[in-house]
Design goal:
The complex is a heterodimer of chains A (about 260) and B (about 400).
Chain A: H1 3-13, E1 18-24, H2 33-42, E2 47-52, H3 62-73, H4 78-87, E3 95-100, H5 102-108, H6 110-119, E4 124-126, H7 136-144, E5 148-149, E6 151-153, H8 159-168, E7 173-176, H9 192-202, E8 207-210, H10 217-220, E9 230-233, H11 235-242, H12 247-258
Parallel strand pairs in A: 1-2, 1-9, 2-3, 3-4, 4-5, 6-7, 7-8, 8-9
Helix pairs in contact in A: 6-7, 8-9
Chain B: E1 5-6, E2 9-13, H1 19-32, H2 36-50, E3 56-58, H3 60-66, E4 69-74, H4 84-97, E5 102-107, H5 111-123, E6 126-132, H6 133-138, H7 140-148, E7 152-156, H8 163-177, E8 181-183, H9 194-202, H10 204-217, E9 223-227, H11 232-238, E10 248-254, H12 267-270, E11 272-276, E12 278-283, H13 308-316, E13 319-324, H14 326-340, H15 346-357, E14 367-372, H16 380-386
Parallel strand pairs in B: 4-14, 5-6, 5-8, 6-7, 9-10, 9-14, 10-13
Antiparallel strand pairs in B: 1-2, 2-12, 3-4, 11-12
The chains are: A alpha/beta (about 260), B alpha/beta (about 400).
């Protein structure tokens, strides 16, 4: 079993929702970034997603896009991220996933990226502009180094297409809750239970729900039999951090609820 | 060749949430485009609404001066002032046949936005146009035209506030609006099947021009020249000539000011392959894969990428891609105005500029066909400033 799947299954075995915070690399500043990651780790993150900034993030809403452009302006690069991760290797309990668009990985060189990411302690990668049909080569290269390419599916993904993803995926499946980009919403769309149910049927992997999550109450409003195994939150966390909030306090509202 | 690819270029690099509408579009192209009902309605719109067929014009004064025959394909005479209407009428009609009630579009200079707004108004579809905030400021006349034609114009404040950010915004909007909305993509680029779809609607240019050259001269042209930004007018002109191996094809990219280290829009000549806006193609990017800003005096060529089929035709050598700089385009613009009484768009002026600057490379007495993709009325402010009037 892939380590990412293990982490979520372990949380579930302990009666918990697994927590997956997302932070753009170099956010809120290059100096404070690693401190934030440590805080999220100490506060009980099961998996941490680190965003690799890109100039043209088409799957992201305004908060993640702004964080991405800010990171680029401050000089964050994939090379720099790899060096920082390698320098801190072994410091975290949480598993690590990188989330970024295709072109920076491609220009870095997919083989070189996979090799260095594995050495730096990364366990998986999410590429929001790499659908199933284009993902074969990258998935193979990552898999050879033990890294999972995480499947992203959404409200308009039919069950048969989910099954095609399921055949080749490992780690967990990331279910996008809204027909839209990343960014917090007050309420989850009404079709979320059906999407989660469809993902459960198609995938044997744990199910993570993301895009639009803001408060734990959103998940508690879902029928108990179709709640996700993990929750991903990005924009709401970035906004909280940007307003001067502490990562640990943000996590506490989720751990208190789901403990 | 892998589906959706031209050699190694093309593909469909989009969020999974955009795959269903792109697959729906691919299916609609297969089911609807070949039907007689669609073809005859489109033909009617192109003829009676847009003004096709466009003429082929011989340039007597310039031909004498250059020592070879210069012929122009007059897309500048179309409704809304450029070749863009060929594509927007086709896509708007397809959207209607697909049961969609709205169009969204990106626009840089505003020509595609105006052409989409006109097609939407004609066919009774709602229309929303995404436009970089900087372009909204510098192309205010086109913003007014779009609004008069009933479109809603959304200025985009993110990123570089230009065309590439408008495309990002339109792709994002399409994720949430796909159930009733077609994304009317403006050039022969983007994720599959857009490069195929736009080429399909623009290749009427080359088909007409090929037949007209035969009719007027009894032969094919020796050279065909077109400006390349995203590349829709050029691909539409080139594709029908690609099998005619005796016809030399030349695409012209915008080189910007030409000063050392200047920004430009020459993705094929000066870029590297990478992924942007759903396709693997030649791009202006830094060593880390971040997209770099482009620049050109011609807003319609100001884009950091290029359609994948051009990247492919460059890689095989079938099409040669040259560069024209801002001042060369301006000089060509003035030349055509004075010598032939035609006021070309700055985009098309790049194609002419290449012919004028490289006149020695064309065989004496040969036939040179230039795609005059648009008219220059829209460029009066820019030209006035550049010429210091």
């Amino acid at each position: 079993m892939h380590i990412l799947e293990e982490r979520i299954r372990a949380a579930k075995a302990g009666g918990r929702l697994a927590l997956i915070p997302f932070v753009t690399a170099g956010f809120p500043s290059r100096e404070s970034f690693w401190g934030i990651i440590r805080e999220l780790d100490e506060a009980g993150a099961d998996i941490i997603e680190i965003g690799v900034p890109f100039s043209d993030p088409v799957a992201d809403g305004p908060v993640v896009e702004a964080a991405s452009l800010r990171a680029l302006e401050s000089g964050v690069t994939l090379r720099g991220i790899m060096e920082e991760l390698r320098a801190h290797k072994g410091e975290l309990k949480a598993a690590l996933v990188l989330m970024g668009y295709m072109n920076p990985f491609l220009q870095y060189g997919l083989e070189r990226f996979a090799e260095e990411a594995a050495l730096a302690g990364v366990h998986g990668v999410i590429v929001p502009d790499l659908p199933l049909d284009e993902a074969g080569e990258m998935r193979r290269i990552l898999h050879e180094r033990g890294l999972a390419l995480i499947a992203l599916v959404g409200p308009n993904t039919p069950e048969e297409r989910m099954r095609l993803y399921a055949e080749v995926s490992e780690g967990y499946v990331y279910v996008v809750s809204v027909m839209g980009t990343t960014g917090e919403r007050g309420k989850l769309p009404p079709e979320v239970p059906q999407v989660l149910e469809r993902a459960r049927k198609a995938f044997a992997l744990p199910v993570a729900l993301g895009f639009g999550l803001k408060r734990p109450e959103q998940l508690e409003a879902l029928p108990p039999d179709c709640r996700p195994d993990a929750a991903v939150f990005g924009s709401s966390l970035l906004r909280y951090l940007d307003a001067g909030g502490r990562a640990g306090d943000f996590m506490a509202q989720w751990t208190r609820r789901t403990a | 060749m892998k589906k959706g690819y031209f050699g190694e270029f093309g593909g469909c690099f989009v969020p999974e949430l955009l795959m269903p509408p792109l697959m729906e579009l691919e299916q609609a192209m297969a089911d609807i485009l070949p039907s007689e009902a669609f073809q005859s309605e489109l033909h009617g719109l192109l003829k009676h609404f847009a003004g096709r067929a466009t003429p082929l014009t011989f340039c007597p004064a310039l031909s004498r001066e250059l020592g070879f025959e210069l012929w122009l394909k007059r897309e500048d005479l179309l409704h809304t002032g450029a070749h863009k209407i060929n594509n927007t009428l086709g896509q708007a009609l397809l959207a209607k046949y697909m049961g969609k009630s709205a169009l969204i579009a990106e626009t840089g200079a505003g020509q595609h936005g105006v052409a989409t707004a006109a097609a939407a108004a004609r066919l009774g579809l709602r229309c929303t146009v995404y436009m970089g905030a900087e372009d909204v400021e510098r192309q205010s006349a086109n913003v007014r035209r779009m609004k008069l034609l009933g479109a809603e114009v959304h200025p985009i404040e993110s990123g570089s506030r230009t065309l590439k950010d408008a495309i990002n915004a339109a792709l994002r909007a399409w994720i949430s609006e796909q159930h009733d909305t077609h994304y009317c993509f403006g050039t022969a680029a983007g994720p599959y099947p857009f490069p195929d779809l736009v080429r399909e609607f623009q290749s009427v240019i080359g088909r007409e021009a090929r037949a007209q050259m035969l009719e007027h001269t009894g032969a094919f042209p020796d050279y065909v020249v077109a400006a390349v930004g995203g590349g829709s007018n050029a691909i539409g002109m080139f594709v029908p000539f690609v099998p005619d191996t005796g016809v030399k094809l030349i695409g012209v990219e915008a080189g910007g000011t030409g000063r050392p280290g200047c920004l430009h829009s020459a993705a094929i000549n000066l870029g590297r392959p990478g992924v942007l806006h759903g396709e693997y193609t030649m791009l202006l990017q830094d060593e880390h894969g971040q997209i770099q800003p482009s620049s050109s005096i011609s807003a319609g060529l100001d884009y950091p990428g290029v359609g994948p089929e051009h990247a492919f035709l460059h890689s095989t050598g079938r099409v040669k891609y040259g560069i024209a700089f801002d001042h060369e385009a301006l000089a060509a613009f003035q030349k055509l105005c004075r010598s032939e009484g035609i006021l070309p768009a700055l985009e098309s002026s790049h194609a002419l500029a290449y012919v004028l600057e490289h006149r020695g490379e064309f065989e004496p007495n040969s036939r040179v066909l230039v795609n005059l993709s648009g008219r220059g009325d829209k460029d009066m402010d820019i030209i006035g400033r550049a010429l210091g009037d």
